[in-house]
Structures are given as C-alpha cells and as structure tokens.
Design goal:
The chain is of the alpha/beta class and about 230 residues long. It has one domain: Rossmann fold (3-Layer(aba) Sandwich). About 40% of the residues lie in helices and about 15% in strands. The protein has 9 helices and 6 strands; from the N terminus they run H-H-E-E-H-E-H-E-H-H-E-H-E-H-H. Helix 3 packs parallel to helix 9. The chain is globular, with a radius of gyration of 17 Å. Bound molecules: flavin mononucleotide. Flavin mononucleotide (FMN) binds next to helix 3.
C-alpha cells in the first residue's frame, strides 16, 4: 500500500472529525496541563460501554498501573465492560512496515496484538492509553501497540471511538507532558476519535509518591463518570 492511501486515510479522518464536531473538543485540551481533564463529552453513566485499556509500563505495580487500576475500578462500578491489555507482559512485536496488510488486513505477526487485543479494540467504544513518560513520549511498549494499528487502519480510522490518556512522570515542569499530549491529540485528530479526558500525573516517579497524590482519585472519578 502506498503513501497516498495513508494520506487518503488522513483526509477521511479529518473530514469525519469536522463532521462530528470533535475539533472543538480537541482544542479544549491544554498540552501543558497537570490535572485530570474531564470534558463534558462523558456519558455520565448513561450508556454502558465496551472499554479497552492498554497499559505500557514494565512495572506491574508501578505508578501508571495504579492509574489503570483506579480507572478500571470506577468504570466497572459504573457498569462498563473493561478489557485490559498489559503490553509489557504480552507476546508483541513491532510493525515491520512490510505492508502485507495493506493497512486493512491480517498482520504478518500472529501475536497477542493480532489475536487478543485487536478484536477487543475494534469492538471498543472507548480506548484508554496508559503509559509512563519515557523521554517525553509514550513508552516503547505502548508505541509498539499503536504502530500495529496500521494493519487495521481502515477499520479504526473514522470509527468514532472515544479515548482517554493517562500518564505518569517523574518531572513536574509545565512542559513535562507537552510532547506526549501533542502526540495524543494528533493521533485523535488523524483517527477521528474523540478525547474525553486525561489524567497527567506529573511529579509521580514512584509508587509511594503517586499514592499520596490526587491522581489515583482523579483516575477513579474519570472511570466512574464516563
Ligand atoms: C526509560 C525511562 C525514561 C524516562 N523518561 C522520563 C522523562 O522523559 N520525563 C520524566 O519526567 N520522567 C521520565 N522517566 C520516569 C518515569 O516516567 C516515572 O518514573 C514513572 O512514574 C514510571 O511509571 P511506571 O511506574 O508506571 O513504570 C523515565 C523513566 C524511564 C525508565
């Protein structure tokens, strides 16, 4: 599949975005914000959703895992169905760029992303990205999963899903999460998905620190209110 198809996908996603009015919601997301942002696009408990949570940390009981735990606790309490995919503990492989999938077909990697995650992801109403900040972006484990969207690009692009980003970082500068949130916003714009909230846990480099912070409660409340 050549580059033109990817550009066509971009155009289709952008038109969908404009038609669905998501552009306004995306503009509301501040790249440098340090607090949880819950937009008024949440379902407020009205609709039961299928949720896929993708985590990207190699620490089973780390800081970002705690945000995922708390979000899932809230979401399940609100009656939503949650599937969790811990990328660091699954058999996953990076995209080879071989284009055998043609951006709309089976991946040459018949691994956990293709077999376990993708059916859940395609059926999901809401996708939650959870990552530690690694060199100002998402972890390689999570990026590996995102790159593999390529084989299902035609189905994912313009599918109108909702999305949430939750991240943890050691630093607490006003620009600590800027690159990550900018990437996330760009991804939303391309896919035509709707951002409905973020939890950006800056200054949380270890488990004892995040446990004393307000961020786990923010993640729980976000799960409860969607
Ligand atoms: C490879 C690596 C890169 C990191 N890069 C950053 C960074 O760019 N900025 C930052 O504030 N913290 C950085 N950190 C710290 C982690 O984001 C932080 O400790 C986080 O809480 C770890 O999350 P986890 O417990 O879920 O794995 C980095 C840590 C590692 C191991």
């Amino acid at each position: 599949m050549d580059r033109r198809v990817f550009i066509q996908g971009t155009a289709a996603g952008f038109i969908t975005l404009l038609l669905s009015g998501c552009g306004l919601a995306l503009q509301n997301m501040s790249a440098g914000s340090t607090a949880a942002q819950i937009t008024d696009k949440t379902s407020k408990g009205g609709n039961k959703m299928k949720i896929t949570v993708i985590t990207g940390s190699p620490h089973k009981n780390g800081t970002s895992a705690l945000l995922a735990d708390k979000f899932i606790e809230g979401a399940r309490q609100a009656g939503h169905e949650v599937f969790r995919f811990n990328a660091a503990f699954e058999d996953i492989h990076p995209c080879l760029g071989c284009d055998r999938c043609g951006m709309n077909g089976p991946c040459v990697h018949q691994d956990a992303i293709d077999k376990k995650l993708m059916p859940q992801l395609l059926a999901a109403d809401l996708v939650v990205f959870v990552t530690p900040l690694y060199y100002w972006g998402m972890s390689a484990q999570l990026k590996t999963v995102v790159d593999r969207f390529y084989a299902s690009n035609a189905k994912l692009c313009g599918s109108g899903k909702k999305a949430i980003l939750m991240a943890t970082a050691y630093d607490a500068k006003d620009w600590t999460m800027s690159s990550l949130t900018h990437h996330y916003q760009t991804l939303m714009k391309y896919l035509g998905w709707e951002d409905i909230g973020t939890v950006l846990a800056v200054g949380c480099g270890s488990r004892p620190v995040i446990e004393r912070s307000e961020f786990p409660e923010q993640a729980y409340q976000l799960g409860l209110k969607i």
